[in-house]
Amino acid sequence: DTAVSQTPKYLVTQMGNDKSIKCEQNLGHDTMYWYKQDSKKFLKIMFSYNNKELIINETVPNRFSPKSPDKAHLNLHINSLELGDSAVYFCASSQDFRSSGFSFGPGTRLTVT
Amino acid sequence: AQSVSQHNHHVILSEAASLELGCNYSYGGTVNLFWYVQYPGQHLQLLLKYFSGDPLVKGIKGFEAEFIKSKFSFNLRKPSVQWSDTAEYFCAVTDGGATNKLIFGTGTLLAVQP
Question: Which residues are bridge partners to B14 per DSSP?
Fold first, then answer.
């Protein structure tokens, strides 16, 4: 069973398009996150939701909009894609991180051409 | 704000060599520390974590890390590396706040030569 899953795994699109990445976790965790990993492998948090409520919103362009229909899902919608948006986007979840840590999804490699 | 420094950006070792990867964090309060590994093309996997208690933490695949509070450090060690340990290694710390934000270091790329 995949604990944290993301779709799609790869996404190639042109500048200006709008795209979405979906994330689902079957761990029963209350908190979900989106991280961006740039070309230098640096990982930076973008958003976090706890029980469908936004609790972290880092300095991210408002072209990025997370949506959490329920606590098992956290989707990321990106409007007007730019070349600089090319990266790997990781979804993660946690409950009591002291016992289970943070669980990461397989990542979505977004390439904007 | 919390920050995490990994001073070794790229490490090259031969098989059976010993490994130590440095990690320093900036927060002076209670911290929760992690090491994650990312094998080529794969997602992040937890190697080990420290919250409290014994400062020497043992993780999976023969890795261990030592929390030295006075040095704000949490270095990762392995006595004898294998070719399969070739990966990117990330140190991370939670910010201690209510949001449990996980802050990553810049990563260390380990290449083990057979």
Answer: B113
Check residue B70 and report its DSSP letter. Answer: G
B100/A31 Cβ within 8 A: yes
Nearest CA-CA partner of A97 in B81, B86, B28, B36: B36
Q: Is A102 close to B34, i.e. CB distance below 8 A?
A: yes
At B85 the three-state DSSP class reads helix
- A61's CB contacts (< 8 A; 6+ apart) are none
Is the pLDDT reported for residue B19 higher than 80?
Answer: yes
Whether the CB of B5 is below 8 Å from some CB of chain A: the reply is no
Contact call for residues B9 and B1 (beta carbons, < 8 A): no
- pLDDT tens-place string over residues A31-52: 999 999 999 889 999 999 888 8
Distance CA A68, CA B77 (A): 39
Whether B32 and chain A come into contact, CB under 8 Å, resolves to yes
SS3 B51: coil
Q: How far apart are CA B103 and CA B6, in angstroms?
A: 12
Helix (H) or strand (E) holding A101: none
